[in-house]
Amino acid sequence: MKSYIMYLLIIFISTITNAQHTDLKEYGLKGHVKSITTVNYESGICTNNQWIPYDEAKPNTITTLYFNKSGIIDSSITEFGAFKTDTSSFRTKTIYVIEQNKKVSAKYYDHSGKFTETIKIKWLNNKTYSTYFYDLNGKLTFESTSWLNDEYRDNKGEYKSYDNDTRSEERRVGKECRSRW
Question: Does the pTM of the predicted model rise above 0.90?
Answer without folding.
Answer: no
